[in-house]
Amino acid sequence: MLAEKLIPHIDTVLRTLFAPATTSRPYPDAGMEEGELSEEEKRHALGLMRVNHVGEVCAQALYQGQALTARTQENREALQHAAYEEVEHLAWTEKRVKELGGRTSLLNPVWYAGSLAIGIGAGLLGDKWNLGFLEETENQVTRHLEEHLEGLPEKDGKSRAIVAQMRLDEMKHAEMAHDFGAAKLPVPVKEMMQLTSKIMTTISYRI
Prior knowledge:
The chain has helices at residues 2-18, 39-69, 73-99, 108-124, 127-151, 157-179, 187-204. With 207 residues, it is mainly α. Helix 2 crosses helix 7. Residues 1-7 have low confidence and may be disordered.
């Protein structure tokens, strides 16, 4: 019985880390021409899109952990729906990283394991704190994506289109968590989340 419950979660881990992600929605940059980027601009865009891909790997793990420990079916289904959209983000960013001539982070299994543990921990605190953690995570991700839109080369319209659509989706996820009754997290918790995100971002930009 336990094994049957774990099979879908094991499948999620394997698909996230080792299989190409798929999307049911069109790629936001579909039909756009590749911009003429200098080598420096291309490296910078690649670094930012690798960071965004890592963020989506972490999102899969967070949502998985939170869904595992959600108290109600309604919250569990909401988390699973958001996770589905994050899979699309995973596909978009993975494709863009490859187009820019790079690879995804070598540390993705580490990021996944850490985020899964955090998601499980948040869920064990209860649904309102689980949703509060989700809302704050999405708010911070939205701010990161806004910074990336400012930092991406102007001529890199393809990356900018992807990030812009991701930003809109993340904002919706934060609103969903808020509407479901998310608790407001204490400031020290928010600051710790920001510090953790900064460490992950700095490392995954390069590795």
